[in-house]
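Suppose a colleague, Dr. K., hands you the sequence of a protein chain of 171 amino acids and asks what its three-dimensional shape might be. Before reaching for any lab equipment, you can write down a predicted structure in token form. Begin with the sequence itself:
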Amino acid sequence: MGSSTSSGDVRGVSPTQSGQITLEEVLRHHAFTCGLGESQLATLASMASEVSFAEGEVILEDGQHSRAFFLVLTGSVSVELCAANFVVSVQALGPGQVFGWSALLDHHDTVFQVRARENTTALRLEGEDLKAACEADPRLGKEVLQRALAVVAGRVRATEIRFAEMCGIRV
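The predicted structure, expressed as tokens, is then:
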């Protein structure tokens, strides 16, 4: 899986490249974590690591045990539905978006494959660490749950739209 460093940036330049931006600052401006309290951002920053993925690299495989939640910083990924004879791109995600929500559930396998569409950087949060932080801070847990459910709903909707397109239905 991708290489790891210690920080990331939502504006397309990694803090490791610029040396100026902290993980808390990155999280403060990422769409998924924007609006969280300072202590919540500090908690998330303490468990985050920047990872990089090469174009075409499979980041998550359909059906593998889900371990990490990712916040896209630069580049883009494709969320794909895999079948025996074909792969369908359901949704493209870019900076400010997230994937790996299955890592927030106990003993859950990934539902989709995720592949880097181009060189991509993301913040990786280990699912077990994130779940523990959410249990320790119920306000953080509520925010993460609500935001993750919005992601899941969006993924379901994107899947519905893609299948409708495949069936020749205009959406």
